[in-house]
Amino acid sequence: MYKLRRYSQVNQLVEAQNLTSFMRRLNYFKFLALQDKKMLEEMRLEKEKLERLQYQQMIKRQDLGIKARKQAEAKAQHEYQKKKEVARLLQVQKDKAYYEREMKALEAESRRIADYLRELYASRSNRMSTVPLGSGRFSSPILGGTMTSPYGWRVHPIFGTRRLHTGMDFGVGAGTPIRAADHGVVLDASWMGGYGKAVMIDHGQGIVTLYAHTSAFYVRPGQKVRKGQIIAAVGSTGYSTGPHLHLEVRKNGSPVDPLPWFR
Ligand SMILES: [Zn+2]
Predict the structure, then answer these.
(1) How far is the CA of 88 from the centre of ligand 1 (A)?
(2) InterPro entries under this entry (predicted)?
(3) Centre of ligand 1 from the C-alpha of residue 79, in Å
């Protein structure tokens, strides 16, 4: 538009018939050129304004997008945490139910063993020795093994429930030989519920040792054993969370702290 007009202006100037007319036209064209310049400037400003506006709107849209995305992310994260918490609670309930079942099974088996021993002591055909068979001093059933959990009351770290640990544990690898703590006669070597595969040795005078969660027996009921003799292998049978020997000392059927016999 600008160029086109300039061309026609030159033509009109050339065609001017006198100076006055020429000067008038020149002034008029100068005015027009000025107007054009102003208009162009206005258009440029208008264009810039529009571009600025578009840019601002784009930024606003982006900000809104980021905000919406952040909100969605926060919501998803919150829902995920909620689901995780529910799953955790369900797992705890499941674990607790399993733990309680396990505890009840072990307690039931412990009572059954106590009843069984008391019946033996009370029966006429008493298989139990009334004279001491052993030395009265125990040697470790695990050669060089140390006790990892003592006899006594335990509070569950998560459930907070109290439970009597009826023996002492030796946490050692599966297959580790288990030795008779003292001389005696094998009373039983069989599956004993929550105790898994277990061996009981009569040491006379109401004292019996019990070796639980074993993986294999090397003795049979009625067999005489000597202190330190290998009688079984460590395992994780019955209610057990990993390979270990659970050793119990029974006095007239009831579990007592084995520690005094090791002193
Ligand atoms: Zn134990």
Answers:
(1) 27
(2) Cell_wall_metabolism_enzyme, Dup_hybrid_motif, M23ase_b-sheet_dom
(3) 41
